[in-house]
Specification:
Length: 202
């Protein structure tokens, strides 16, 4: 049996990752969504253990030191990281996993796990991105300004990804992501066990 596929989805903050993934999970509940750890404070409506594991800086640094993180990065003054064990166990059991992480972390995942499929979601424009961040109503003006200033740098990183698509119309974006995820399952580097299995049959 092939291992699960490790998908990494990045996009500037406010582009719509959470919104698009909600639709993906509504259609396919057999993908494991990796819950990250972060030192940022919970937003209204966010739950510990569901949206993130909200931890102190000290606890986060302990997790790094004990080798418990697949990757970690700092973004807008906070730590974010992917707990390693659960992700590796799910992949080993054949289940697909999705990480919703920023670009520096995505590069670290690719280095540690070269079969990872890197997907970048673009906003239709920076002006639309700003409207979405403002419209979401969860961040202060200062935080929004920081996130917008990161967005251009992150969009330039999309050249290092395997796939790119735009989140303009929501249902088109969901279809694009679904197609990308399906097509990635047929990549040769995801099918080592399948090929070996065929060769072993007489
Ligand atoms: P992210 O997870 O990337 O930070 P969110 O999913 O929280 O972004 O989306 C940010 C805001 O943009 C939300 O208010 C969401 O409803 C809105 N949004 C997301 N996708 C679209 C879209 N395709 N068209 C219009 N608004 C969108
Ligand atoms: P937010 O504060 O908006 O939830 O997330 C800020 C950024 O951190 C987003 O780009 C999000 O994808 C990214 N992020 C969330 N979890 C992780 C993680 O575990 N590792 C890394 N490197 N980035 C993460």
């Amino acid at each position: 049996m092939n291992k699960g596929v490790l998908y990494v989805l990045s996009a500037p903050s406010g582009c719509g990752k959470g919104t698009v993934l909600k639709e993906i999970f509504a259609r396919n509940n057999n993908i494991y969504y990796s819950v990250s750890a972060t030192t940022r404070s919970p937003r209204e409506g966010e739950t510990d253990g569901v949206n993130y594991f909200f931890v102190s800086k000290e606890k986060f640094e302990e997790l790094i030191a004990s080798g418990g993180m697949l990757e970690h990065a700092q973004f807008c003054g906070n730590y974010y990281g992917t707990p390693k064990k659960k992700v590796m166990d799910e992949l080993e059991s054949g289940r697909d996993v999705i990480l919703e992480i920023e670009t520096a972390g995505a590069m670290k995942v690719k280095a540690a796990y070269p079969q990872a499929v890197l997907i970048f979601m673009l906003p239709p424009s920076l002006a639309t991105l700003k409207k979405r961040l403002t419209g979401r109503g969860t961040d202060s003006e200062e935080v929004i300004a920081k996130r917008i200033s990161e967005a251009e740098r992150e969009i330039n990183m999309s050249y290092k990804y395997d796939y790119v698509f735009v989140n303009d119309d929501l249902s088109d974006a969901v279809s694009s992501l679904e197609m990308i995820m399906k097509s990635a399952k047929y990549l040769v580097n995801q099918n080592d066990d399948l090929i070996k299995g065929v060769l072993q049959k007489c």
